[in-house]
Every structure is written in structure tokens, then in C-alpha cells.
Amino acid sequence: MCGRYALSKLPSDLAEEFEIHTGESLKKLLALPPLPADWNITPTRDIYIIRNSPRNERDLAITSWGLIAPWSKTPADALKSQSQAINARSETVDQKPTFRSAFRARRCLIPADGYYEWATENGDFPRKQPFFISADSQSRNKSGRSTLALAGIWESWVAPDGSVRESAAIITRPAVDFLADIHSRMPTFLPEDRWDRWLDTSLRDVNEIRALMQVDTPAAGLQATPVSTAVNSIRNNGPQLIEEIDLEDHLTLF
Asked: In whole angstroms, what is the distance from residue 30 CA to residue 200 CA?
């Protein structure tokens, strides 16, 4: 699963990396105070997403993390829905009532510097040891980009007072390669050559959409860095959370 991640980029940085050159919401975002850099993003917090506008132009928007089920009747229902729907499993995203409509019609990319995962019993790591998974140096040098593109879906909910709240969820998949030694799940990453088709609002064929998520080497270009347990507390924040620790030295403290 993915329950915490980091993003420190400005809207202008994301616009450049994801080649967003048009869109009224982008103009508005660039004119407003940006979301603060956040190295410990938690569910229900405001996040950036990249999606296509009704004119099918790439756009940058702010939503909250955790999909609000369209049938939620009260703000309390919406908050409960969000806390239970921060991730959508790739195996069933087109079948689950909370996610299936968004999967067909409202797909997005969720930018991240990287995400955190806590070790399970899958590998030879201390259980619950946190890792920060991000683009490795070779991948950054090759693409000139450090931001990960996580496959996501978004939804729009109308509250009883008439206000509109938009929300998003990350699509996860079974973990592979070295990531499977840390945890059984990982986000679904989309290569750049699939972004246009993934965001295309006219694409509604479930089989074709699902095929876009099938990547031969989904862990390629990633690295997993052991980090301090300081990330465990939502009160902690700052770039020190993603600094690598010496796992051997760290273990001698206990």
C-alpha cells in the first residue's frame, strides 16, 4: 500500500516536468500561494494531481487525498470514505463501486518525490522499518526528472451546502523485485509515453485502460532508502525525514 508520501515541488516545477502549458486552473494555481513542501503527506491532506480538462488539455489541480464516494451524504460520511479509500487496488479498481466510475472517466497522475513503505516480514529487514522509495540517480540523470508519476483516479462530490470537493486515490499493484522484499504492495507507476492516453477523457474502454497499467519492469529506475522512524509521527516533517540512515548502526541502538 502507499500511506505516506512526499512532494516538495512548486506548481511551476510540476508544470515544467509534466509539460503543462495551458489550462485556466494552472494560471490560477500559479497566481496563488502554493501548497507547502511536505515530506510527510497524510490521507485527507490537499495534494496536487495532473489530469485532463474538459477540453482534454493537461491540467494541474488540487484535490484531497482519499476518494470520497459519490453517494456520501454528509461531511462525516465523506471523511470516513476518504480514510478508507486512499488506495485502489489495480486488480479490482474497475469493479469496486467506489472506484469504477472514476477509473473509466476520471484518471490522473499523482506527482511525488517518493513514497514511504514500512517493512513487513517479507524480507530480512526489521519489521516496520521505514523506507523512502524514489527515483534512483541513473533514472534522474537519464530523464532529467526526479518526480514520480503515480497512477491515480479522482472524483467530485457535492456537499449538502452545495460546495464541491474533489478527491483522489492512488492505484496500487503487487510489489515486484526488491520492493517485494519490503512490502507486498507498491504504487502503479506510469511511464511518460503512456501519460497522454491515461489522461485522455475520451478513453472509456476498461480493457485498454487496464493495459496501460501493465509495465514489464515496474520497479525499474527506483531505489529504496532506509530512513528514520521519525516519519512514523504525522507531527514530524521536513527534508530530514528522507535522509538515509545506516541500518546497521541504527539497529545497534536497540
From this structure: 24
